[in-house]
Design goal:
Blueprint lengths: L1 E2 L5 E2 L4 E6 L7 H5 L3 E7 L8 H9 L10 E6 L5 H20 L12 H21 L5
Antiparallel strand pairs: 1-2, 3-4, 4-5
Helix pairs in contact: 2-3
């Protein structure tokens, strides 16, 4: 079970994990050992997440979530398969936690009187500096 929140746990059978060969530098270890982890999790098929959280996750512009609602995470940060597996699961849990949190609606505000006055004073000062650069009138 992958613990996402106090009341939400994802069963291991809903998460598809496969070991693949890692990319990049690493010498013989990378060429011989399948230490990278490819994790797939179907948001639409899970019953553990609330529908609102699923909708928030699908609405995000995250390249790890496909158009079909499948989360794909590739972990190859570590040399050992077990560490990469733990890393992939933790990254999935963090992504799902982000879907559980509701963003506060931004309330637009207007600048106060002091801010307006400061802006106008700065414009006046800037204009005076530029006026001093001009050729004097004779």
């Amino acid at each position: 079970m992958l613990k996402v929140a106090d009341d939400i746990e994802i069963p291991e059978d809903e998460i598809e994990i496969s070991a693949v060969r890692a990319q990049g530098a690493g010498g013989q270890n990378v060429n011989k050992v399948a230490s990278a982890i490819h994790l797939r999790f179907d948001l639409g098929a899970t019953t553990q997440l609330p529908e609102a959280a699923k909708a928030r996750l699908l609405a995000r512009s995250d390249r790890r979530i496909s158009a079909a609602g499948v989360v794909v995470i590739k972990a190859q940060r570590f040399r050992s398969q077990e560490k990469n597996r733990a890393d992939a699961l933790e990254r999935l849990a963090e992504l799902l936690r982000q879907g559980l949190t509701v963003q506060k609606k931004r309330i637009p505000t207007r600048p106060g009187e002091a801010a307006k006055q400061k802006r106008l004073d700065e414009k006046t000062r800037r204009g005076q500096v530029k006026a001093l650069r001009r050729r004097p009138d004779d």
